[in-house]
Design a protein that fits this description.
With 357 residues, this protein is α+β, with helices and mostly antiparallel strands. The chain is 35% helix and 14% strand. The chain is built from ten helices and 15 strands.
Length: 357
């Protein structure tokens, strides 16, 4: 068939495609037919009960999550899986699934079903159109019939309200609340060597030069391979070891002794100009090590709190309210730096109760 015999298709002319004939008319929207729930009150009530039932069952599953969290032992198994994790996943996952399914059923069977055409604008709509949009939102809220269908509304609100309970209960997995003594104590003890935080090698006083800063940590006991002996002598392992090292992280700095102005009672806390301070900022706990040896100040990179290490670690700028805790140093018989005890001041960020104390 030639192009002349096909007037409604594209023909080639001059190497380009050119439209021939009239454009296809706008087919418009298909004819809308009422849903069964729109014409049968019994089906409408059944759909409403289905939606409310999904929301109600979601509420029960969420409460079941809370009960299972406390009731199922951690060593219990179910179908070859950890019983606690399996039950918690099934109950919370099922609750979320039912809330979603109920919302879909509500929209498909009961909400207003009229199709509309809305012209879209490439630029910001005028104020009048925005007011119209707000009116449409109000109308849509009314068409959802949330106010009229109290059974669906109440069951939905109930299922959503109890969803906050798992979040509150799971806060328990963050660990026990530390006591006041635990907050004020680290693993530093008298005679414990100060070691490099990367290599783990002990540090001699003669190794540090004036103006130098070294990131360090305590030389905690090394596991012996005998669990009972390790427990008896207080060896830390795993997460406990990492947590202890993090809380006890320190910085060593060496400066000219004549430039140091120690607070009263701390005149002998250094060794030949070597001072030791906590590496944890007293504002919100960020690690600090930005050292300016000419001004003897160290800067926290998070919120720019600045501490003068030549003056007891006091705050000279920024949001921190407390000086950096200082660790008293000594030297053992082999010339290695050691701690003379734990920190006197609490290590870590401040909190309201501390400020009141």
């Amino acid at each position: 068939m030639s192009d002349e015999d096909r007037p409604d298709e594209l023909s080639r002319g001059g190497g380009e495609l050119e439209p021939v004939g009239d454009p296809i008319p706008d087919p418009g929207l298909p004819e809308e037919f009422p849903r069964p729930t729109d014409v049968d009150p019994a089906l409408e009530r059944r759909a409403e009960r289905q939606v409310a039932g999904a929301f109600g069952l979601a509420t029960l599953l969420t409460l079941g999550f809370c009960v299972a969290y406390f009731a199922i032992p951690e060593d219990k198994t179910l179908f070859g899986f950890d019983a606690s994790n399996f039950t918690l996943g099934m109950t919370l996952g099922g609750a979320l699934l039912l809330i979603g399914a109920g919302a879909v059923q509500w929209a498909r069977q009961l909400m207003h079903n009229e199709e509309i055409v809305e012209e879209r604008h490439p630029i910001e709509s005028p104020e009048e159109d925005r007011e119209i949009a707000l009116d449409m939102i109000t109308v849509s809220a009314a068409e959802s019939e949330l106010g009229r269908r109290k059974l669906i509304r109440n069951s939905l609100l109930g299922s959503l309200a109890v969803l906050g309970l798992p979040a509150v209960i799971l806060l328990r997995d963050l660990g026990p609340i530390p006591t006041e003594e635990e907050l004020r104590r680290t693993v530093w003890a008298k005679g414990m060597r100060v070691v490099n935080d990367v290599a783990g090698t002990p540090i001699r006083a003669s190794d540090l030069e004036i103006g130098q800063l070294v990131n360090a940590q305590p030389a905690v006991l090394v596991p012996t391979g005998n669990p009972e002996k390790d427990k008896a002598i207080g060896v830390l392992q795993g997460v406990e070891l990492l947590d202890a090292k993090a809380r006890a992280a320190v910085i060593l700095v060496r400066m000219v002794p004549d430039e140091i102005h120690p607070p009263p009672g701390r005149e002998d806390w250094g060794v030949n100009g070597i001072l030791c301070y906590s590496k944890i900022c007293t504002h919100v706990g960020c690690p600090i090590s930005l050292w300016e040896h000419q001004t003897h100040k160290v800067l926290c990179p998070c919120h720019q709190s600045t501490f003068d290490l030549a003056d007891g670690g006091k705050v000279t700028f920024g949001p921190a309210h407390r000086p950096l805790p200082q660790l008293q140093l000594g030297v053992d018989a082999e010339g290695y730096l050691i701690a003379m005890g734990d920190f006197v001041d609490q290590v870590g960020p401040s909190y309201p109760q501390m400020e009141r104390d």
